[in-house]
Amino acid sequence: MHKIRQLVLRYPQLSVLMVINVAVWVLLRLLLLCSPAAGWSVLRWCELPCGVLPMLHRMWSLLTYMWVQTDGVHLLFNMLCLCWFGLMLPQGCGWSVGRLYVCGGVCGGLLYAIVGAASGNTLIGSSAAVIAVAMAVTVVIPKRRVTLPVIGPVQLMWITVALVTVDVASVAFGDLSGHVAHLGGMLSGLLAGWQMRKWRFTPIQIQSNTEREDMQEPTTEQILSKVRRSGHSSLTPEERKILFKMSRGK
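-> structure tokens emitted (250 positions)
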């Protein structure tokens, strides 16, 4: 319990994302059980419609669909992936896990509305958002090794490739619109990861000690001007030292 509390405090955004997903699933299941009509009404309000024009009339659905899931197994798999990759996201890399999640979900929804309209199906689920997080982390640290049970050490990029392959293969026999949304999440994660990687490895120009001293050291004119304005007592020890060196040089 103490370790869980530490993780929550250390990764607040990741914790909030997972809590919202699980809470929405629990509340929706209870609502469907107690009042099926009300539950289906809420579900219809949250889901993303197919086609650009229907989406434009329900713009809020671009944000709501990515938090709603009806399949408990699907929810569990997505939350495990989100937690696993979210914990590996480097701190201070320019993108937070929450930002990656939302951008991935929005990009997946937009691509679905544009390309997947022919399916005629509505869209719910966090897969596109979670895939965006996984892709971004993989682009930033592709060669990081993680130990899997039975298999042993494996580079992160191969795990992501395997997850994407399984996802593509599974949806190939089912809902094509879901696959389109996943592709949007992948693209969002790849672009974000590229930007994070570029930011992370941008060399920082370090000034030499002499350059810093030249920039920080006040000039003689500045010191004399300060003396005229406020008197000799207003000078700092460093300024008095500079003034003393100047007088000796003369």
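Confidence is low (pLDDT under 50) at residues 202-215.
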